[in-house]
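Progress report, Aim 2. The chain analyzed during this reporting quarter is listed below.
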Amino acid sequence: MSELRNLLREAKTSLQDLENLLQKARSIDQTQNDHSVLSREELQSYFDETLKILERLPENLRVEEGIQQRGEIKSLHLQMEEVRIKLEEYLGQVETACEHNLENLSECIESINLGESVNVEASPPASKIPNLNELLSSGEVHFENKDYDACLTVMTQALEVDPSNSEAAHFVVEARKKLEDQHLEEELVITIENLKKEAMDQFDREQYKECEGTFRFLCELEPKNRTLQDYLELSRQKVQETEA
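Predicted structure tokens for the chain:
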């Protein structure tokens, strides 16, 4: 009788261990970030212990004649059969959960390896990434040499390396201003040349008043240009002659 009770107690203890194991497997399956995965040795020990208990559970109970506690023995027999059924059921559930977890783990590892491969292919070699200090130094030299286009290009690259770099941002703004000034100066030179041609044409057409006004404007733009001043003086004389 006491042996049966001990067997039942051991079976219930193993059942509780298996319930804990199954709960742990389910929690690992539901939470992918959980890193507490059972080792192969731990899982094997549960299966070995369970098989030992199953082997020790009697298939039939032989009760000697004369035992007065048949009702209690029958109750123990039913309980042990229930434990046997539950043990087999939990073993199947644990095995299924472990297989499912292994499948998820394999997919996760494959996904991580694929992501690392893509990142390695997409990332440029470290040797090809321009050095920030070199870019800043090169851009400053271009600015000092008044090569504002090259300065703007290099400093823009520096900002791509370090978007918060204030020195590169400053040179980008200044280089753009210088390029705008150069563009305006070029347009002014073209305008002055066109005005000079127009003034000469007016003089040839004997439009001396218009010619005088054009040369006066040109002399304001280029006050040190002696040629323009001479033409202005000549235009005034022609105006005075026509009005006399």
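Residues 31-36, 59-68, 120-129 have pLDDT under 50 and may be disordered. The two ends are 152 Å apart (CA to CA). These observations will guide the mutagenesis work planned for the next reporting period.
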